[in-house]
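User: Fold this one for me? It's Ketosteroid isomerase.
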Amino acid sequence: MTETTRLDALVRRIEVLEAEADIRRLQARYMFLCDTPMPEFGVTSDAERIDLIMALYTEDAVWEGVGEYYDNQFGRAVGAAAIRKHFEGFWGGKTDPALILNCHYLTSEQIHVHEGGTTADGQWVHMQPWLFSDGKALLRSSRLNNTFRKEPDGVWKITRTRTENVFVAPLPSTWASDYPSKSVLMRP
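Assistant: Here's what I get for Ketosteroid isomerase.
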């Protein structure tokens, strides 16, 4: 192997590692922005939250719930406008009872950067406790099978969010005794 070949191989390996790190941060950012109460400092409205989430997606992206439980619950949204509408239906005081606690925990990560280094897919399992204003509570787990594209400006974006139910388990209304009404973690 020549020195040039070795250097080219090393550059490709670094590019893959950087892509994996970017995608990992992108997926974690999406989940962070979907948490309730909203942990992003300075975001005071659901419209701002949705704008931040939409900045993570490509214009031609797809958001879909699949499988026997999520097909009818979440459906399929194609394109940025449809995905925005999906999120607008979820936030903005449009749910009754109101969601007062939701936190995403990601695990079982697999990220695959495809040949050429501009597309990738990733799989995760996530769990999230939900608490509603009427005291109803549940624990939800899903498998994610998402795709990503490196845009011409070098920024990775989500091209597909695909979620499939693993389980939904009711929790007692008293399962969480102490939780914040707003996040203060991100204050400067």
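One thing worth pointing out: The chain has one domain: 3-170.
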